[in-house]
Design brief:
Shape: elongated
Order of helices and strands: HEEEEEEEEE
Radius of gyration: 34 Å
Structural class: mainly beta
Strand content: over 45%
Number of helices: 1
CATH class of one domain: Mainly Beta
Number of strands: 9
Strand order of the largest sheet: 1-9-3-7-6
Distance between the termini: 89 Å
Helix content: 10-25%
CATH architecture of one domain: Sandwich
Length: 177
C-alpha cells in the first residue's frame, strides 16, 4: 500500500513539473505613459544648488628648542571668503625621557585674539631616549573664519633638550557667506 502511495505522489510531481515547464506565459509590455516637463516662467522646473566641499588635511612638525618650555607650528591660514570647519585634530609630542607635556592645544589666532582648543595627551610609547605622547579630538566641529591662522601649540615640563611637536587637522572649507 505504501509503495502505491509513493508511486502516486511521484507521478503527481512528475505531471506537475512537465505541465508547468510546458506552459507558455505571455508577458505584456508596460503601458506607454507620456511625461511632459516644461520649464517656463509660469511653471519652472524645481532645482537645488549643490555646493561642493573642499576637504583639508594638514600635518606639520614643530620643535621645542633647547631652553624653552613652549613650541608651536603654524598649520593653515584660512583663505578669504571661506570658513574652515575642523572635524578632527590630533597632536603628538616626542620628548626626552622623563619630560611631560603640560598642555597641547590647537590655536586659532586672529588680529591679536586667540581661541584655544585643548587636546588631551596620553603616553603612547618609549622609543630609545624619548617618550611619545599622543592625543586626538574627533568630531570637534570647530569653525575657523577667513584670515585666521590655525597652529598647534604645546608646553612641556622641562627645558633641558630639544623635543618635537606634531599637529594635524582635518576638515573642509565652506563659503563664509
Amino acid at each position: 500500500m505504501t509503495k502505491h502511495i509513493y508511486a502516486i505522489a511521484g507521478l503527481a510531481v512528475l505531471i506537475t513539473t512537465v505541465g508547468v515547464s510546458s506552459t507558455k506565459f505571455k508577458s505584456q509590455p508596460p503601458p506607454v505613459q507620456n511625461v511632459n516637463v516644461s520649464n517656463s516662467s509660469a511653471t519652472p522646473v524645481p532645482t537645488k544648488e549643490v555646493k561642493t566641499k573642499t576637504y583639508v588635511s594638514i600635518s606639520k612638525l614643530g620643535t621645542f628648542e633647547d631652553g624653552t618650555t613652549a613650541g608651536s607650528s603654524e598649520l593653515y591660514t584660512v583663505p578669504a571668503g571661506k570658513r574652515l570647519i575642523i572635524t578632527d585634530m590630533s597632536g603628538q609630542c616626542y620628548l626626552p625621557l622623563g619630560e611631560m607635556p603640560r598642555e597641547i592645544e590647537l590655536r586659532d589666532t586672529f588680529g591679536g585674539g586667540i581661541n584655544y582648543h585643548s587636546i588631551t595627551m596620553f603616553h603612547q610609547a618609549t622609543d630609545g631616549d624619548q617618550d611619545i605622547f599622543t592625543g586626538t579630538r574627533d568630531g570637534a566641529s570647530i569653525a575657523v573664519e577667513a584670515g585666521h591662522v590655525v597652529s598647534i601649540y604645546g608646553m612641556r615640563t622641562d627645558v633641558a633638550e630639544k623635543g618635537f611637536l606634531d599637529g594635524a587637522i582635518a576638515g573642509y572649507l565652506e563659503d563664509a557667506n
